[in-house]
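User: Reviewer 2 asked us to show a designed sequence for the structure in our supplementary figure. I'm pasting the structure tokens here. Could you produce the per-position amino acids so we can include them in the response letter?
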């Protein structure tokens, strides 16, 4: 395997070793067998003549580095499945089967991830092979793809006995936009930045930063230190805003109207600050490869400090009230439990891992930008239930406030005089990898260039790609009436999954 010591990184694609399929399978299995601190960042296929070169990018959370290894297969070939030994690989192998028709022998659940445009199997979404349980008292409940509220389309198929859920299968893929294809086809760097900001509207900063880092590495340019600090502030502000809104959504699901209204009200000044900063409440237009487009001026820094002080005071009083209410805790506690063993096997990332004691966090394991010079302690809970997920959100809001205050102080002593680097050409025959700990968790951008320096493959992994299966496990042995609160406690992305 080729060692990648730091992320973001750019590697000559020729430096990633090509081995035979048997050796590849054995190497990946051995790597992932070294405990719960290793997982797959991404597993992608790129053209290799008339064949496909499948590249695995594997990460060690403990050793803080990555490895790359690849093998070559023909479209439609049959290869051994790694998922039967390491379930976290199931989603990647299913994706490659769906995109390229590669058959993974021994895969326990070889079903489509989504039905993208030009899918190799040519079937429609209505033909999805849902799992069924038969029995005299078993019944199915279907929810979606059209929902009662303003929500993106997705279908949830429950197998129940009475009110108890035995199994949930989730099918997404109703709004495929071919984002990755658009990123390859577009030769306009500005357009690409706009596209990545729209991958998931609640993760604008996360995806924009991941894209910027990958392009900067390919272009051989270094972002100025002021922009690096501003990007971290924006990421933590985005994290706070979404967590705040989700605490409000959880309050609504347990009929605590005060929390529903007030958490939503506290989210507003946070996203409104983005409006002051860059002219868009979600942070669109702020981050671009090379440098940020809008500076966090001294006036804005003063305004941000005032906003943080006011939000923190109100948030602390409200969240303390929330977790002291028996009516709230009774609904949160022991609802939707997912064990440490389950999240480790699935390869869960972000708060969906940390709520069950798996301290997986890019800010600690593979730090970039200003996180590289700071010791960041991941926020971890151990209950694996709705309460643990709510507590992670509460504690991460407090941590983000502290991080932003420290970064604002650091900015006070800096001058923004660095020239903006000119991002013109990208390194040929290279692969760039970037990862950001967005509010949902680890998102990864993989960008591959051809011999002329044009982007030939662009792959995005939203954290929801791993974590939808965690939601499915969380409702097992729960009453079906607990599904809304379990769903809100994860708040996964439909569009981020269905690229």
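Assistant: Here is a per-position design you can include in the supplement:
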């Amino acid at each position: 395997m080729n060692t990648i010591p730091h992320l973001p990184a750019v590697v000559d694609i020729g430096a990633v070793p090509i081995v035979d399929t048997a050796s590849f399978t054995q190497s990946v299995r051995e790597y992932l067998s070294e405990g719960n601190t290793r997982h797959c960042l991404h597993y992608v296929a790129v053209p290799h003549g008339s064949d496909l070169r499948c590249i695995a990018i594997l990460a060690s959370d403990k050793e803080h580095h990555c490895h790359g290894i690849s093998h070559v297969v023909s479209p439609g070939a049959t290869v051994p499945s790694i998922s039967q030994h390491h379930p976290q690989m199931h989603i990647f192998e299913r994706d490659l089967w769906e995109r390229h028709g590669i058959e993974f022998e021994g895969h326990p659940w070889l079903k489509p991830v989504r039905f993208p445009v030009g899918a190799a199997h040519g079937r429609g979404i209505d033909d999805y092979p849902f799992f069924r349980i038969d029995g005299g008292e078993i019944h199915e409940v279907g929810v979606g793809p059209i929902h009662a509220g303003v929500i993106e389309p997705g279908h949830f198929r429950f197998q129940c006995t009475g009110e108890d859920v035995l199994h949930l299968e989730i099918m997404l893929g109703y709004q495929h936009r071919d984002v990755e294809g658009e990123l390859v086809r577009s030769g306009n760097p500005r357009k690409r930045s706009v596209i990545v900001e729209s991958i998931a509207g609640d993760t604008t900063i996360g995806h924009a930063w991941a894209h910027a880092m990958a392009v900067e590495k390919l272009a051989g340019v270094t972002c100025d230190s002021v922009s690096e600090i501003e990007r971290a502030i924006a990421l933590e502000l985005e994290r706070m805003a979404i967590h705040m809104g989700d605490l409000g959504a959880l309050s609504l699901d347990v009929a605590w109207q005060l929390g529903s209204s007030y958490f939503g009200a506290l989210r507003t000044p946070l996203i409104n600050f983005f409006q002051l900063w860059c002219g868009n409440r979600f942070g669109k237009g702020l981050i671009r490869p090379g440098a940020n487009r809008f500076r966090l001026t001294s006036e804005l820094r003063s305004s941000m400090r005032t906003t943080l002080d006011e939000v923190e005071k109100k948030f602390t009083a409200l969240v303390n009230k929330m977790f002291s209410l028996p009516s709230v805790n009774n609904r949160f506690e022991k609802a939707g439990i997912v064990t440490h063993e389950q999240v480790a096997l699935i390869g869960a990332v972000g708060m969906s891992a940390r709520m069950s004691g798996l301290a997986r966090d890019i800010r600690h394991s593979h730090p970039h930008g200003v996180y590289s010079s700071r010791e960041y302690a991941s926020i971890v809970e151990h209950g694996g239930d709705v309460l643990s997920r709510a507590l992670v959100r509460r504690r991460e809001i407090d941590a983000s406030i502290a991080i932003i205050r420290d970064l604002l102080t650091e900015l006070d002593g800096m001058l923004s005089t660095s020239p903006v680097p000119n991002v013109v050409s990208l390194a040929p025959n290279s692969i760039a990898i970037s990862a950001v700990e967005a509010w949902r968790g680890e998102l990864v951008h993989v960008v591959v260039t051809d011999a002329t320096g044009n982007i030939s493959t662009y792959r995005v992994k939203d954290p929801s790609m791993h974590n939808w299966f965690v939601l499915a496990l969380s409702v097992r042995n729960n009453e079906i009436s607990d599904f809304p609160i379990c769903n809100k406690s994860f708040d996964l992305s439909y569009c981020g999954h269905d690229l």
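For the response letter, you might also mention the following. The longest strand covers residues 38-48. Residues 220 and 381 are 40 Å apart (CA to CA).
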